[in-house]
């Protein structure tokens, strides 16, 4: 039997529609339009695509987006000055700095400068701390999206074994916190983990976020497990064409209960959750 394919594209579309409804309600009831500042440094082609999609989705949902495109040579001081300006702007409820940043910029310093209340990416230490103590705050978009996808196939996480592959600050660590909040038993694995296939095979849920194409093979996955594929790697085929592949060899996962596709799984949810975080930030902001 084939595994169920969790349709991230359709679920993202639904969330975007709900967000548009919430934006309209906020406008009518409070006279406030959520505003998202999108900062792109340099011209990384993938970042250009993602930023373009974020802005297009904002437009559709009725969120005001304010785009700041800076050259790759921008100084750290200039970037910090822009963030100070955006922090002080009452029309800006969310600030997004598209990653990666150029090497000469200290990304940690830049992200820490964003006001935690406007940190719609959930990367600021205050929001990281809130997430790890289960005390609210803004949660990173990809992990939020993963939970929406998982909730579509799992009612009760209590006692389930989850193996997270990858310990990044953007995905691995925050998704582990969200799963712990649901009383799952979470094992976070990484490049140094011994016998990773054996560890993975014990999982009821695998979240693969290693950035390693087709790392997770069929024999890593227990029959009936749910597999969330977070990897997005562009590879070049024999014919010279590029295509996007995930961290999982999905064609070997017929025995899984459900899997997310790449593309069309976690990626679209990341953008939808950014918009819903922006509305959340606008809803908690002080009146202008
Ligand atoms: N400030 C941030 N920077 C980055 C984040 C982030 O959450 N915040 N995540 C990634 C990039 N990203 C969003 O910014 C992102 C990546 C992929 C997708 C997506 O929809 N992917 C498609 C496939 C790719 C394609 O079609 O080109 C899919 O999976 O279907 C959306 C957003 C790093 N930077």
Key traits:
about 290 residues; alpha/beta; Rossmann fold; 2 domains; 6-stranded parallel sheet; 3-stranded parallel sheet; 9 helices; 11 strands; globular; binds the ligand Nc1nc2c(c(=O)[nH]1)N[C@@H](CN(C=O)c1ccc(C(=O)N[C@@H](CCC(=O)O)C(=O)O)cc1)CN2
Summarize the structure.
The protein is of the alpha/beta class and 288 residues long. The protein has nine helices and eleven strands.
State which percent range the strand residues make up.
Answer: 15-25%
**Rg over C-alpha atoms, rounded to the nearest angstrom:** 19 Å
- Average pLDDT score: 97
Instruction: Provide a count of the helices.
Output: 9
- What structural class do helix, strand and pairing data support? alpha/beta
Q: Separation of termini?
A: 56 Å
Please count the beta strands (DSSP E, at least 2 residues each).
11
Structural domains: how many = 2
Shape: globular
CATH structural architecture of the largest domain: 3-Layer(aba) Sandwich
Largest sheet features = 6 strands, parallel
What is the third-level CATH name, the topology of the largest domain? Answer: Rossmann fold
Portion of residues within helices = 25-40%
> What strand order characterises the main sheet?
1-11-8-7-5-6
Organism: Novosphingobium endophyticum
InterPro entries: Aminoacid_DH-like_N_sf, NAD(P)-bd_dom_sf, THF_DH/CycHdrlase, THF_DH/CycHdrlase_cat_dom, THF_DH/CycHdrlase_CS, THF_DH/CycHdrlase_NAD-bd_dom
Catalytic activity: (6R)-5,10-methenyltetrahydrofolate + H2O = (6R)-10-formyltetrahydrofolate + H(+); (6R)-5,10-methylene-5,6,7,8-tetrahydrofolate + NADP(+) = (6R)-5,10-methenyltetrahydrofolate + NADPH
Pathway: One-carbon metabolism; tetrahydrofolate interconversion
């Amino acid at each position: 039997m084939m595994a169920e394919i969790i349709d991230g594209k359709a679920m993202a579309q639904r969330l975007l529609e709900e967000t548009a409804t919430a934006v309209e309600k906020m406008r009518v009831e409070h006279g406030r339009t959520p505003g998202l500042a999108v900062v792109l440094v340099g011209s990384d082609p993938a970042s250009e695509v993602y930023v373009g999609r974020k802005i297009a989705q904002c437009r559709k949902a009725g969120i005001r987006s304010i785009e700041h495109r800076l050259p790759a040579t921008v100084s750290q001081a200039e970037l910090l000055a822009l963030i100070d300006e955006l922090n002080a702007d009452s029309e800006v409820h969310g600030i997004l700095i598209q990653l990666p940043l150029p090497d000469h910029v200290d990304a940690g310093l830049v992200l820490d400068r964003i006001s935690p209340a406007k940190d719609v990416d959930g990367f600021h230490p205050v929001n990281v701390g809130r997430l790890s103590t289960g005390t609210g705050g803004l949660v990173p978009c990809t992990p939020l999206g993963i939970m929406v996808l998982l909730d579509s196939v799992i009612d009760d996480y209590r006692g389930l074994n989850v193996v997270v592959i990858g310990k990044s600050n953007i995905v691995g660590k925050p998704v582990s916190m969200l799963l712990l909040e649901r009383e799952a038993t979470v094992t976070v694995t990484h490049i140094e983990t011994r016998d990773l296939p054996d560890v993975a095979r014990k999982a009821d849920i695998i979240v693969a976020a290693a950035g390693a194409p087709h790392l997770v093979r069929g024999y890593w996955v227990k029959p009936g497990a749910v597999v969330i594929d977070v990897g997005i790697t562009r590879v070049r085929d024999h014919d010279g064409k590029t295509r996007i592949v995930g961290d999982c060899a999905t064609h070997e996962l017929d025995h899984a209960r459900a899997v997310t596709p790449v593309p069309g799984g976690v990626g679209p949810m990341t953008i939808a959750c950014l918009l819903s975080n922006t509305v959340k930030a606008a809803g908690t902001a002080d009146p202008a």
